Amino acid sequence: MRILFAKLLVGMTGLLIVVLAILFAVIRNPSDDAQMAAPDQVTLTTPGAGVVAPTTSDAKSQAPQAATVARGRAVYVEQRCRVCHSIQGEGNTRSPLDGVSARLREKEIRLWIVAPQEMNPAVAKRGYQLSEEDLNALVAYLTASSHR
Amino acid sequence: MQLGRAALWIAVYLGLVLAPLFVLLVGTTDTNAGFWWDFAIALGFAGTAMMGVQFLLTARFKRAMAPFGIDIIYYFHRYIAVVALGLILAHPAILMFDNPAILSFLNPVRAPWRMNAGLASILALTALMISSWWRKRLSLHYDAWRRWHSALAIAALGLALAHIGGVGHYVAAPWKRALWTGIGLSWLGVIAYVRVGRPWWMLRRPYDVIDVRPERGDAWSVVVRPRGHEGFRYHPGQFAWLTLRASPFAMREHPFSISSSPMASGQLEFTIKELGDFTETVKTVRAGETAFVDGPYGAFTIDRHQAPGYVFIAGGIGIAPLMGMLRALADRGDARPIILFYAYRRWERLTFREAIEKLRSQISLRVVYVLGEPPDRWEGETGLIGPGVLSRHLPFDRRNLHYFVCGPEPMTQAVERALYGLGVPLRQMHTELFDMA
After folding, report:
1. In chain A, how many domains are there?
2. Domain around A2
3. CB contact under 8 A, B72 and A2
4. Cβ B25–A24 below 8 Å, yes or no?
5. Which of A18, A24, A126 has the CB atom closest to B21's CB atom?
6. CATH number (domain holding residue B344)
7. Are both A122 and A100 inside the same structural domain?
8. CA separation for the pair B386, B409 (Å, rounded)
9. Long-range pairs for A107-110: beta carbons < 8 A, 24 or more residues apart
10. Are B324 and B232 found together in one domain?
11. How much is the ipTM here?
12. What is the CATH number of the domain that holds B165?
């Protein structure tokens, strides 16, 4: 009876700990879907605005650039780069990417994404298999002037 | 059984384990790491805090244990460890499943030190669990096991804290780092209290062995008397950790029931059966040697449960705490009716046979011996204590009595079932788990 009682106590306690750990994760990720989608929607409106903008030669070249950066940001969110990296204090501040284009050449940034071990054999990071378009967009986003 | 008290206890435990985790939420920037990531992180933190609280559970803080029975706390320690190991194993497992890049951390040559610390913590914890759950099968000596147990426990916790500090992300804010350092230090404080503070206190309160008396059935009664101090007050049926031929710092203490009456002022008696490494050496102890006693503990006592009469049910050396209660009843001149069911294999090995017979003339005691291997012409009960034996001897008002059962766990469980079948309410049955190793 006492063993059963001890097991009952442990069972209830263990269950509550798991439930509260779930609560912790939910609090940390308020409406997961909305959070993930929001950046895409925000950034995707930019090229839309660019299309109706006056077609000066300057705007012409900026619009596709903005679209690429927006797409790069979407890739950045989708691939969950923020788990390990931060930009402007958002994300994991252990490995900030602010001003990365000042530190690395574009080719090096690419390698860090697709084959990090070629940059540093000791690094614990996997290479990301991205389409050429996604990779270009991601690099464009990372080198965009806004967070240099 | 004691559900209100259980709820309070669980709440306190959850507070100790989870408050440090939820504090991490304060002022965090949202990393959008995803549900599974943060769930795994929470499990890691909770598991580490559980490891820390494990030290608290076996630190034997008398006030905290008193209302509950320390045996439950020890069993809680034992079973919740399995839950903690599960959570801690789930922590990297979920992270790796969620983000396979982390798999590379499993290579200790290339992984950063903070990840190796985490991995080493898990290995230490696993070794700890294997050596504890299968101690007897691995034929580990109790004292050696106990030293390894604390060494591995301290290593596992220290490495886990190093892992948390090294990863650093969740405790990046200075005040959070300070908080977790403080929590870690308070666990270390508990360890220091158990390993240094209490032994030091015990060393200053030694006991003299004044007699080692042989009892029937390969048992020995060790009588000790406090040397230069008051000793402690206790309730009949409680137990204490006894150290013989070792310093309190050596952690070579063993829990035994006190078989003397608290009224027998100035001395304590433990009745110990030869069953293992330590108990077989008890007979070589001589009067004049020094002993150390940490007690009293336990909730298995008539003093906590008033009733018109008591039924004691003993199997083998389980008689020891019941003997303490019988002697106390005699010393107090208590006239309430007592029935003692006492199961043993053979008549000539029946521990306390003469003492029990003597008590019959002092208190209102009826004894029902139940022998496994009865001698010729035995007219008493035989076999095991079950519904048959109990219903033949229990009085009409059995539902008003309180029952104290002490013996091997299978016997205890069988008796509890039998009593329940006879209509005795669960809250009137009292038992104690004494396999505390």
Report:
1. 2
2. 1-30
3. yes
4. yes
5. A24
6. 3.40.50.80
7. yes
8. 14
9. A109/A139, A109/A142, A109/A143, A110/A135, A110/A139
10. no
11. 0.85
12. 1.20.120
